Amino acid sequence: MAAAPQTSLSAAETDALRTIAGTMIPEDAALGMPGADDPAILDDIVRSIGRDLPPVREALAAIVAKAGNGFAGLERDTREALIAKWYPSGGAPAAALGRVILSAYYRDDRVLVALGHEARSPFPTGYVLEQGDWSLLDAVRDRPPFWRDDRIVPGEER
């Protein structure tokens, strides 16, 4: 009988994620910005991985393997260089890892306040957006469709 797939990160994977997240987004005390390895942010990252668990696991394993399983013991600059070198060729796992880290980081109230935003959700109050030049979209509106319209049955005209 096959073992059931894990639905969360192991302790070792969580430790690797902490180190990688903190390397990607380090703390900046001068600006009042926590690092992505902050316990509250890391907890949010782990809780929100969801459907991205397999590619995140793959990304963690790839980064740790590049360092010969001594990733956490490397100097911060070395870890940063290793991630920067791997990331462009990391494909979907790299995108998933970046997405879960950044999403949780920019949800943190301390980060929002440090960036000059209110620590609240955008709705129902909303945010006022400056009106832009809507004519910039005219070229897109005017071009003919370039996708298959599944509402049209072949051989029938509308």
Structural features, described:
- The chain contains seven helices and no strands.
- By secondary structure, it is mainly alpha-helical.
- It has one domain (11-121).
- α2 packs across α5 (91-105) and α3 crosses α5 (91-105).
- The chain is extended, with a radius of gyration of 21 Å.
- It starts with 10 loop residues before the first helix and ends in a 16-residue tail after the last helix.
Features:
mainly alpha, 7 helices, 0% strand, extended
**Which runs of at least 5 residues are low in confidence (pLDDT < 50)?**
none
Main beta sheet: strand number and arrangement?
none
- Tally of structural domains: 1
Structural category is mainly alpha
**How many separate helices?**
7
**Share in helix:** 40-55%
Secondary-structure element string: HHHHHHH
Mean pLDDT: 88
- Strand elements, count: 0
